[in-house]
Amino acid sequence: MAVVLGIETSCDETGVGIVADGRLLGDALASSMEEHARFGGVVPEIAARAHLEALVPCVSKAFADSGLTPADVDAVAVTAGPGLATALQTGVAAAKSFALAWDVPLYGVHHLAGHVAADTLEHGPLPRRCMALIVSGGHTSLLLLDDLARSPIVHLGDTRDDAAGEAFDKVARLLGLPYPGGPSVSKAALTGDPDKIAFPRAMPGSYSFSFSGLKAAVARWVERSPETLHVADVAASFQEAVVDVLTAKAVSACRDHDVSTLLIVGGVAANGRLRELAAERCARAGIELRVPVPRLCTDNGAMIAAVGGLLHEAGEPASPLDLSVDPSAPL
Ligand code: KG4
Ligand code: ZN
């Protein structure tokens, strides 16, 4: 049984997880989200300092949770990119120190591979071929997966402008709702009418996405009648437009590539309406839908440990101890 410690520090969450053979044994999460709230977005220097403060306490808590000690660890995995450079560096420096001190291999992991692997911790190994829709604050990507540890991921499409989570965050700001926008817009949407406003559904070519036109449409709507604005209706109608496009494109990508399993991962996969509409459309199309519990959808260390476990099991070469971060790592 290989025990892997995973570290995630690409944005504002300090995540540590301990995974053994695809099972999550212990984890810890700290967030600097509140410190960024007054700036309306993540400030890299604040995030990096917060990671430094939180890392060792998070590692201690993950060990305490798991009942294991450093002597039990067989490998260390860490997010090497993409993400904020200074934030990534804190995690990578810590991971190198642990790998060196414990004399175990180090694996630099792609953040998006981590989001995909998160699902295996809840639902077990992935089928040979599957489609993944990654929807987070930085990404909106459709990926065709084969063997996560060995085969390259085929990148089918991406957003041409804002990521889905970014659109939620920006619309929250327009509506005067607190940061982070995803949870606050979806909460406001609960009491709103999703059919009230026919916001545009941009369908750019093939598997690309675009949310900047939708964001601009919400901005125009807010400017037109700020005093009579019904925030819940705007939030619900905006959310419906986003999840309509995401689910329609993901289902057609599965059909086009003859894939019968769809994974939805990343922070926006915590969205209740997205989960509901995806379940409906996948059931109709005969596609198996896999979406992890919300705490595994958002950034965490266990997902990075899960990829480390797959790499270790597949006998992939470890990363060198001079591993550098890659803030804009391609897939
Ligand atoms: O994956 P994640 O934790 O970090 C990144 O790698 O970006 O995703 C964070 C994003 C934020 O934009 C946040 O607003 C969004 O996920 N998010 C949501 C929800 N919860 C988080 N968006 C919509 N509905 C939610 N319930
Ligand atoms: Zn993420």
At a glance:
With 331 residues, this protein is of the alpha/beta class.
Structural summary, described in words:
Substrate binds at residues 134-138, 169, 182, 271. GO terms for molecular function: iron ion binding; tRNA N(6)-L-threonylcarbamoyladenine synthase activity. Its EC number is 2.3.1.234. It catalyses: L-threonylcarbamoyladenylate + adenosine(37) in tRNA = N(6)-L-threonylcarbamoyladenosine(37) in tRNA + AMP + H(+). This protein is of the alpha/beta class and 331 residues long. It folds into 2 domains: 3-116 and 296-313, Nucleotidyltransferase, domain 5; 128-295, Nucleotidyltransferase, domain 5 (2-Layer Sandwich). The protein is 45% helix and 18% strand. It contains 11 helices and 10 strands. The chain has a 5-stranded mixed sheet, sandwiched between helices. It has a 5-stranded mixed sheet with strand order 8-7-6-9-10, sandwiched between helices. Strand 6 (130-135) and strand 7 form a beta hairpin. Helix 4 crosses helix 11 (301-313) and helix 5 (164-174) packs across helix 6. The longest helix has 26 residues, at 231-256. It starts with a strand and ends in an 18-residue tail after the last helix. Zinc ion is lined by residues 111, 115, 136, 266, 299.
